[in-house]
Amino acid sequence: MTSAWVISGGASLGSIQVGMARALQAEGLTPDLIVGTSVGALNGAWLAGGGDAAELEAIWLGLERNDLFPVRPLLGLRAFLGRSRHFVPDSGLRRLLESELPHDDFDDAPIPFSAIAADVMTGEEVVLRSGSLIDAVVASAALPGVFPPAEIDGRLLIDGGIANNTPISIAIEQGATEVWVLTPGYSCQPAMRPTNALELSLRAVGMLVEQRFVSEVGRRRYDVPVHLIPAPCPIDVSPIDFSHSRELIDRAFAGTRQWLANGRPYAIPLHPISRREQ
Predict the structure, then answer these.
(1) Residue 190 — φ and ψ, nearest 5°?
(2) Residue 71, pLDDT score
């Protein structure tokens, strides 16, 4: 059996996926391949190095908002005036990846890994599987309007959640015969008022991709077991607030362990979408 972990986007709520990964590893469940989108690409690229999720947890516990979303008032003004395509530089994300990823290149990762991005010109899903891991993760996490689009092989790429936030079909196409989905669970997040433009943008994109996923769930069925790990609920945390990582990791770890003990994995439907492999 070929087991795949599919890790979706969710900004700071990606800490939930760390707790889920810890619980799976504690039960001896490890992936043969990993597919990630946005922050799921960040977590996936690190886990593809074959390390323990407890080490990834330590990285998350040291993160602050300015590490990934540094505020640059002048850049924001330039974006407002139409002189920039983004409000936040991707330099913080690049520094984090350069210092923490165990490998720089896809070919060096012991576990096969794919990152999902979207072509800003065509809307196509782009599967990144070769070259620089850092460039691929930056592209996959390039939230439109917030981060700059990333250019890879002449294509402008943005956050993969726009095209496919939960790329289960990619994992199956790559040979997975069993899929574990690690998602932060936007659908159970209570309504909360965004306090700034960045929170509003992240919340809007989160709602968009979650609604798409829920819509796809009702259409077709997978022909392999797909285990959708339930996220902690409710989640009353801003997607740019990293101060709750300890709490979210612990809740996800305990919830996933209990879910596994109860024998709750179940299959969910499939709806294939158009893509182009890079």
Answers:
(1) -65, 155
(2) 60
What are the backbone dihedrals phi and psi of residue 250, each rounded to the nearest 5 degrees, phi first? -65, -40
Residue 106: CA count within 13 A, CB half-sphere = 18
Helix runs in the chain, H state only: 15-26, 39-47, 53-61, 65-68, 73-80, 91-100, 133-140, 161-164, 168-173, 197-217, 245-261
Closest residue by Cα to residue 231 from 4, 11, 17, 5: 17
Q: Is the Cβ–Cβ distance between 206 and 10 less than 8 Å?
A: yes
3-state secondary structure of 68: helix
The span from the CA of 150 to the CA of 157, in Å, is 5
Q: Which residues of the chain have a pLDDT value below 70?
A: 69-87, 186-221, 264-278
Tell me the two tokens of residue 72: 């640059």
Q: What is the pLDDT of residue 77?
A: 39
The predicted-structure confidence for 214-269, as pLDDT tens digits, reads as follows: 655 555 567 888 898 988 887 778 777 889 999 999 999 999 999 999 886 654 54
Q: How far apart are CA 87 and CA 145, in angstroms?
A: 7
End-to-end CA distance of the chain: 27
Q: What is the pLDDT, as a whole number, of residue 78?
A: 42
Q: Is there a contact between 145 and 201 (Cβ–Cβ < 8 Å)?
A: yes
What length does the chain have?
278
